[in-house]
Predict the 3D structure of the following.
Amino acid sequence: MTDVLTAPSIDYLALLPMIIVGVAAVVGVIVEAFIPRRARRGLQLTIVFAALVASLIILVSNAGIRVITGGLAIDGPSIFLQGLILVVSIVAAMLIAERSVDPAGDAFAPRVSSLPGSDEERELTRRGFAQTEVWPLMLFAVLGMMIFTAANDLLIMFIALEIMSLPLYLMVGMSRRRRLLSQEAALKYFVLGAFSSAFFIFGAALLYGYSASITLPGIAEALAAKPGESGLVIAGFALVVVGLLFKIGAVPFHQWVPDVYQGSPSPITGFMAAAVKVAAFGALLRFLYVAFGGTRWDWAPALWVVAIATMLLGSIVALTQTDIKRMLAYSSIAQAGFILVGVIATNPEGVAAVMFYLAAYGFATLGAFGVISLVREQSGGEATHLSKWAGLGRRSPLLAAILSLFMLSFAGIPLTSGFIGKFTVFEAAIIGDATPLVIVGVVASIIAAFFYIRVIVLMYFTEPGEDAPTVAVPSAFTTLAISVAAAVTVALGVLPQPVLDLVERADVFLR
Amino acid sequence: MIGNGAVIAADVAPVLEPLTAATGIFAWIWLLIALPLVGAIVLLTTGRWTNRFGHFIGVATVVIAAILAIAMLIEMMGRPADARAFEQTLYSWVFAGQFQVDVAFQLDQLSMVFVLLITIVGSLIHIYSIGYMAHDPDRRRFFGFLNLFVAAMLLLVLADNYLLLYVGWEGVGLASFLLIGFWQYKPSASAAAKKAFVINRVGDVGLSLAIMLMFVTFGSVTFESVFSSAGEASDSTLTWIGLLLLLAAAGKSAQFPLQAWLLDAMEGPTPVSALIHAATMVTAGVYLIVRSNAIYDRTVFAATAVVVIGVITMIIGAIIGSAKDDIKKALAGSTMSQIGYMVLAAGLGPVGYVFAIFHLLTHGVFKANLFLSAGSVMHGMNNGVDMRRFGALRAVMMITFGAFMFGYLAIIGIPPFSGFYSKDKIILAAFEVNLIAGIAAVIAAGITGFYMTRMFTMTFLGKARWDDDAHPHESPAVMTIPLIVLAIGSLGLGASLYYWGDIVEWLAPVTGYESRPIAISTTLLELITLATVLIGVAIAVLMYGRSVPIQPPQKVSVLTTAARNNLYDDATNDIVAVRPTWYAARFLVWFDNRIVDGAVNASAAFVGGASGRLRRLQNGFTRSYALVMVIGVIVVFGVLALVGLS
């Protein structure tokens, strides 16, 4: 009469990409503890790039695998999105590794625990200290994102959410310049993030109470089996969705976004904007499609409200921003709204379009933050006030042209990736009977075009001011990152078909 | 009404022979176009270093194309009548769903004669231009444009579908714009170029609409499928296609009411005028109508419209030509009138198609002859064009005089010169179908006799009325030799094409041909025509034979004043088209500034204001952010509860 606890069968090959990143993150922590300071950077860089590339290679060779194993669903969307997270993270890692644009070193505080403005901080800066803790943190965040997109039950999803978020809270607070702003942002992000996590886990508990299952397919079965019992489901669904909408920065759960984007070191902002969006949309898609795919007409109106508010508020408030990082923060809110339109489509085209849009947006936003990190005040800090950007096109035509490219892509101008992204998302929504949403989306795009193109006007058609910023000469890291981002932005705009084919082949969730 | 419908619509459409794939020498059809095109590209892109020998490249490409065309003609003549049409597909050009168009060429008997006219007359004009433009600093560019003109025209006549024809059509329009405005430093030249281009655009709209309508109706724009299924389309559709094609033809061929550009187009160098009036451009409209015979055979209304337009233009061109003192403008009026003959013939249906083309060929030669002779005169007279300052040039430029005289005799239709054969056939065909058209054609022939005699007398005969600094002289051989060749053509081409070349039988497989009995005898009709012409000649001799005042007389009849003003076509255009457009544009500017911009600015101000208010929500306090989130949760929950999640 002994209960035999049978170990779940686990397909380790399918999980190998995540295992690699996780092990590398742990190794990175050990390196921080035991390896002398001088040797750390080289070693950490090796570990990060080796792990990310190895993980990507295994993932690509796994592309045909479709399996549910140990609470994770390895299917088309999760493989594509995990691959996207890895590629975006590689590019972001290049930005994070940059050490030539800030005269004092890299973008991060020499010792995060030192008080801002203290003697200790000055001394460390004078001695050229630079920390490397950011690398294992980044790997943990990547691990969390990868699991987040594949999580097939709500508990795993919650754990992944926390694995992803906790390192990010820390990374946000690490800025070398304007440290108080950075730390304030980190604290806000942490408090609000914890708040939203509480919503999520409470919602998961309610859904468990309703369906006696914590897995997404289990919830779907319960919904199909006993329609009509709505109280727990409505509350549970609402709370879980709010937790996810917080991560993608949808209105009205968006208010952390501008403060955090502005306060973070620019490479981290780029990493968050690109990779976290991918992961969070992956989880949102899976939650809505797998668990609640059968009740689309019940939840769609609520998301319609959120999507419309997100597109309009993001676009409108961005108009009056004077700081380019805050402007891009509101832009990312508006973009999240556009992607939500694809989510609401609730059809395979929508899944494909969302995935394409995430790729297009991810690269353009990484490139934009890469460019922003190059434009520096005389004092060495980033010149993020928009007025400083006036006339940049005359002194640095190449830089201005590249930033213009990203702005045009955000605005959705043809021959850039952003146009194809918007087009596919809107097309999917029309197929999915959400035409009014598309109309709002187009109106919001018109409003948004103003502030994107204003940056171009500012750079090319405005006289430079007195205290014109300098443009730092980056090392190969940032140069390569911006080049890749620009190349992808053009390639996805001019020749999108291979990637469109790819996302079309990967648009079915496994139940 | 012209004729009666039953006859015209009878089953006279030519049998559409399946085209033979082009092999042998016909595999080189593409080269006909490629040669002058490459010449144009080379001349227009290489810059200054081809200045010294560029014109030889220009001449060589067209001459080689002409030789190739002649070789093709010989080969084609050796084949049976039903195996003379060839097609060559180069590549698939447009493939958008149902809409499939190839870059493909069709060389049949009709295209062949056009190719010959374009390349041979084009060659002579090219050679002549070496001398005429010898002192122009931009001679290389000029030859580049000439080559472009020839290439576009060849593309137009060789295309096997309407869309590719349209490319050539637009190419001709572009090249004519560039050439008419060649001396762009002259405001009158650039204005003339613009005028030609704009008026041509009106016709182009007709062609593009016709092509669209064909695609909608037949699902294809190739000649083969449009013509073979023309019978299945409704009458009204065919009529619309026919009228739209007529609009296009009127634009390119300077037919009423789109004729106003032709007189101003004389601002271009004289070889350009020759090229436009003889070998290219104005013939394109006639080609289009004749090529589309399968459509006009089935729509009496459109065919009648063609005849009416032809008759009107034939008469007004002749009247304008009678009052002009500028030798080139008088010739331009003459061209208008002669093209009117061809359009009239083309509208007559199978009775007239072959004679439209026949006259087009002879006219192409003798009008080139006349224009180049006029150019030779101008060359010797310091570029003067006022015939009141000419006179007595016979003695000083014998070759030019002789060439011009041959052209003169040809155009007024004195046997055995070539115009006699072709024009007479048109008059005859007109009588076969409709009495009014026939009488109009005879009257126009009489006016032709008048204005050409006037021109001939004022220029070459009478007393010298030269400017003081004029030293008329004969032109160099490079100009006179083409004149001599063309003069021989003016003499012999008509008879040889008619008797020896058997033009009727040659073209009939493409255009169809029928002859109808008429009430009076053919010989009598010819005599009446000839008499009318001679009356015109006699009046002109009486009026201008003895003396010509240097200043144009001011007390003249209303008709003369009107003719001097081109029958007020510019004034009419101004009232009908220019002013309304101008007022509409002003209104739209006002509308754009006030209403559209007003709406845009107002909504921008609204959005900006909203932005300013909404950003205040972002107050920086974490607690209020959390509160907004809670409100958001309530809203999401509320909407879900309202809709009722089951």
Q: What stands out?
A: The beta strands of chain B are 20-21, 86-96, 99-107. Residues 1 and 145 of chain B are 43 Å apart (CA to CA).
